[in-house]
Amino acid sequence: MTTHHDNTTGPLAPPIWIGPLKVDPPILQAPMAGFTNFPFRQIVRQFGGAGLLATEMVNAKGFVWLDEQEATHPDRLWGVADEPRPLAVQIWDNDPPTLAKVGRRLATEYQVSVVDINFGCPVRQVTQKAHSGSYLLSQPERMGQIIEQVVAACAPTPVTAKIRLGCARDKINATDIAQVVEGSGAAALTVHGRTAADMFRGEADWEMISAIKPYLKKIPLIGNGDLDTPEKVVRAFQNFDVDGVMIARASLNKPWLFAHSAAALRGEPIPAEPSLEEQRQLMMQHYHLVCDRFGVQKGTVLMRKYACCYAQGRHGARDFRKHVAKVTTREEFHQVVETFFPRELQPTPV
C-alpha cells in the first residue's frame, strides 16, 4: 500500500491546482448522466464541501447540431451561465474538431472553469454505438489528438480528462494513458478504479489508481470509486498516492457527504447525519427546485429517481420506492412522501 501523506508536514489534503484554478478542498463532485443537473448542484452547494462541481456529461455532436439549427443550448447546460463558479462541464464524443468546437464555446461563451473530457463512460450507447467514452482507452493516439485540440481551443481555460483503468481486466493501460493525457496538455487526470468491462461491479482498485501517480510529472491525480463515507475519503488521502478525490453515486442519497468529508479532512469532528425528518424536508426542497425548472408534470416524473436515492439504505425504502415510482402529480408525490418515506425507528418498549 502506498502511503502518501504525513500528517506532521501539513494538512491531510492541501488544495490542488487545475491549471490556474485552485480547488479547495480537493473533493470534486462527479458528473453523472441523468443526475447532476442544476437542482442537484444547488443542493450540493447549499451544504458546501465540494471544491469543484460538474454538470451532466454533454454530447458534443448534439450540441453542434443544436447550434446549427439555431436551437437553444443543450438541456444539460441549463443554469450554467448564471451559476456560481467554479464549475466543470464534461463533454464526450470521438471527433477532435467537434470536441474542440464545443470546448471553445464552453470556455468563451459560458465561461466555465474547467472543460472535462469523458474517456470513462462504460455505457454501451456511448462505447459500442458512438465509439466514445471508455471505448477510446483502446486508442491512446486518438485520445491524444482530442486532448491537444480541445486544449488549444479552450486556452486559457484548463482541460481535464476522466478515464477508467482500461477497457477490461486484461487490457489495463491506465499508466500509458496517463502519460498521453499529460503529454497532450491536460491540466488534471481523474481515474475511476474499475475497468469499462467491470461497469460498477466489484470494488474500485485504489492500489491501481495510486500506481499511476509516479508517471505524472506535474498534473494532479484525482481518484474516484466507492467513496461513500467521510472515513473512506480520509483513508484515500492517507493510504494512496492521490492529490484529490471525486465522489459520485454516494452523493445522490447523501448530498452532505462533501461537507462531512471536508470537515474530516480538516481534522474536525464529522457532523451528525441529518435526521430522517431533515432528509425528507431536503427531498421536498429538491422536488420544488426540479418542478421550478421542468414544470410540475415533468418534474414529478423526473424526481422519482432522486426520491428513490434519498430513501436508499433506510428502513422501509423498498415500500417507498414501489409507491414513488408511480407518482405523476404533485398531490401524489406529497401523499407518498407523507405516507411511505422512511421515518425514525421508534425504540421498542422494554
Number of strands: 11
What is the domain total for the residues?
A: 2
Nearest-angstrom radius of gyration?
20 Å
What CATH architecture of the largest domain do you see? Alpha-Beta Barrel
Structural class: alpha/beta
Order of helices and strands: EEEHEEHEHEHHEHEHEHEHHHHH
Low-confidence stretches: 5-9
Biggest sheet statistics: 9 strands, parallel
CATH classification, class level of the largest domain = Alpha Beta
Number of helices: 13
Strand coverage percent: 5-15%
Measured as a percent range, the helix fraction is 40-55%
Shape: globular
Report the CATH topology name of the largest domain. TIM Barrel
Distance between the termini: 47 Å
What can you tell me about this protein's structure?
By secondary structure, the protein is of the alpha/beta class. It folds into 2 domains: 7-265, Aldolase class I (TIM Barrel, Alpha-Beta Barrel), CATH 3.20.20.70; 276-340, Non-ribosomal Peptide Synthetase Peptidyl Carrier Protein, Chain A (Orthogonal Bundle), CATH 1.10.1200. Helix content is 40%, strand content 13%. It has helices spanning 38-47, 60-68, 96-108, 124-129, 140-154, 174-183, 206-210, 230-239, 257-265, 276-294, 296-311, 317-324, 330-340, and strands at 16-18, 21-23, 27-29, 53-54, 58-59, 87-92, 114-119, 159-164, 188-192, 221-224, 244-247. Strands 3, 4, 5, 6, 7, 8, 9, 10 and 11 form a 9-stranded parallel β-sheet that branches. Strand 1 (16-18) and strand 2 form a beta hairpin. The longest helix has 19 residues, at 276-294. It is globular. The model is unreliable at 5-9 (pLDDT under 50). InterPro entries: Aldolase_TIM, DUS-like_FMN-bd, DUS_fam, DusB-like, tRNA-dHydroUridine_Synthase_C, tRNA_hU_synthase_CS. It comes from Aeoliella straminimaris. The active site is at 121 (proton donor).
